[in-house]
Amino acid sequence: MTEELIRFSHVGFDYGDVTALDDVTFSIARGQTIALTGPNGSGKSTALRIINGLEFPAEGEYRFDGVQVDAKAMADQQFAKRLHQRVGYIFQNADTQLFCPSVREEVAFGPRQMGLSEEEVERRTRDMLQLLDIEQLEERAPYRLSGGEKRRVALACIISMNPEVLVLDEPQNGLDEDAQAWLTGFLRAMAEAGKTIVVTTHHRDIVAALDAHEIHLDKFHHIDKA
Amino acid sequence: MEEKPQSPGVPTWLLQPEMYSPPHDRERFLRANRRKLAGILSNLKLQRGGLGSDCLASPLDRLLARVNPAFRLLGLIATIVCVSISGNMLFAWTAFAVFLVMLALKPAALIVDILEPCFAACLFTALIMLPAAFFGQSSALVRVTLKVLISVGLVLQLSRGVAHNEFVAGLAAYHIPGIVIFILDMALKYIVLLGDVASGALEALMLRSVGRNDDKSGASSGIMGVTFLKAHDYADEMYEAMECRGFTGEYAVAARRRFSGADGTYLALIVLEVLFLLFTEGVFL
Fold first, then answer.
1. Which domains does chain A have, with CATH numbers?
2. CA pair distance B126, B84, nearest whole angstrom
3. I want to staple B200 with a disulfide (CB 3.0 to 4.6 A). Which of A27, A36, A96, B252 is the partner?
4. Distance CA A136, CA A66 (A)
5. Which residues from chain A sit within 8 angstroms of residue B38, using beta carbons?
6. CB hemisphere CA count around B192 (13 angstroms)
């Protein structure tokens, strides 16, 4: 039996006068790979922000591992930090996600935050630099890297915290074909490692390449098919 | 338990569930700043893209929206100057009553949005004026605080009632050079863009601050660094884009509005206001 990890029940959300999500219901099982598809402005990124506890449903509810995630729950610092460790969010624009002076420090930031020993921080940093094939970049400033390299560094700094869920907002944006192929392979490896993966995308070929279950949000901010 | 397939190259620690209990850390500063910045940005974005329905919910605001923003700016300056120089409290109390009527017609959320900074300004002024009360000049404390409340309140009402792009375009009526208007408009645009960068970086820091951060100042300076570098890149891009579009340093701003009956009525009200001030000061006696 598959265990439910994420559940949206009749979730509605708006930015002032603009509706982002309207009566959206879906669930994601532990270890599942999900692709949220839909046109621009259909609410895909908002759904990801809700999954990460950055926004809260105006209507309906969102549960993570059976616990309702709302403003009250997120006011509890312990809960919020644990949620952010369990759900790793890779932004659409990697530029804003990277703020440390070097790639090495960027990757080590999360494990160090978690209070791991320096040996463990070093091991995780080394493993991530190897896994993401960015060892040659370790002393470089993240801001001056290419788009594809920044994406790899962003992935490394999130995965180094060993999250259960990887949430990626349009990860293939700005990547060339080779980088997209690498990314797809990497995400499949993460799925095989047992991670739950949620990606937003406009591209159906990514959905097929990831062998993902598709949730399509239409222009009316409803689920079209699931 | 179902055994997970081993992926080649994936380190073993990544295959294990993370048994982690976050320690306590003081992070109110980070979270409060993120919320505040997001609020300011959302206001700026709303103002740049035209006003939301809330801003023009009051019938008085809908009437005022017909007036050229340049004249409204003139009216605001005239009112602030009149309130400031008035020695007789009758004028100040009348202006305060008008301010309250205008405020009362607005939706509750907008009233709170306007009053919060007003009260902060009043509190600050009252603190500065407190010594006057100890020297027996308590009326000065009330007078100055009231004048600050009216001035700040009117500025906020205008800023919430006029879209920034309309406001900047309205400056052309005063024959302000086009290049100045252009720079002002670009500055507002890039405040929003750089604010988005800073807001995103703060959000990223918050999401990755899953434990105890003993180097908060280091992380904050990283965010400032990213924002600074982005500002530099934006400036370069803007310069190149303008060169590609054949920019020669001249920028003509078309006057978007013709003089209307609403403008005339508004200007007449400003004249009446000045006459009322002169009357309360006893000039006509």
1. 4-100+163-225 (3.40.50.300)
2. 16
3. A96
4. 42
5. none
6. 15
pLDDT at position B169: 75
The whole-angstrom separation of Cα B268 and Cα B278 is 15
Whether A52 has its CB under 8 Å from any CB of chain B: the answer is: yes
Contact B18 A113 (CB under 8 A): no
Q: What are phi and psi of A223, to 5 degrees?
A: -80, 125
- How far is residue B140's CA from residue B122's CA, in Å, rounded to a whole number? 13
Please provide the DSSP assignment of chain B as one string: -PPPPPPTT--GGGTS-----PPP---HHHHHHHHHHHHHHHHHHHHHT---GGGG-SHHHHHHTTS-HHHHHHHHHHHHHHHHH--SHHHHHHHHHHHHHHHHTS-HHHHHHHHHHHHHHHHHHHHHHHHHHHTT-HHHHHHHHHHHHHHHHHHHHHHHHS-HHHHHHHGGGGT--HHHHHHHHHHHHHHHHHHHHHHHHHHHHHHH--S--S-HHHHHHHHHHHHHHHHHHHHHHHHHHHHHTT--S-----------HHHHHHHHHHHHHHHHHHHHTTTT-
Question: Which residue numbers in chain A have pLDDT < 70?
Answer: 1, 220, 224-226
Answer whether A110 sits within 8 Å of B23, measured CB to CB: no
Residue among A47, A104, A15, A3 at smallest CA distance from B46: A15
Cβ atoms < 10 Å from Cβ of B261: 8
Look at the pTM and tell me if it is higher than 0.80.
no
A93 part of contact set with chain B, CB < 8 Å: yes
DSSP annotation of A11 reads E
- Cβ-count burial of B217 within 10 angstroms (0-12 exposed, 13-18 middle, 19+ buried)? exposed
CA distances from B2 to A82, A164, B195, B284 (A): 25, 16, 47, 95
ipTM above 0.90, yes or no: no
Residue B59 has pLDDT above 90, yes or no: no
User: Residue A154 in contact with residue A98, Cβ under 8 Å?
Assistant: yes
- Percent of chain B exceeding pLDDT 90 equals 24
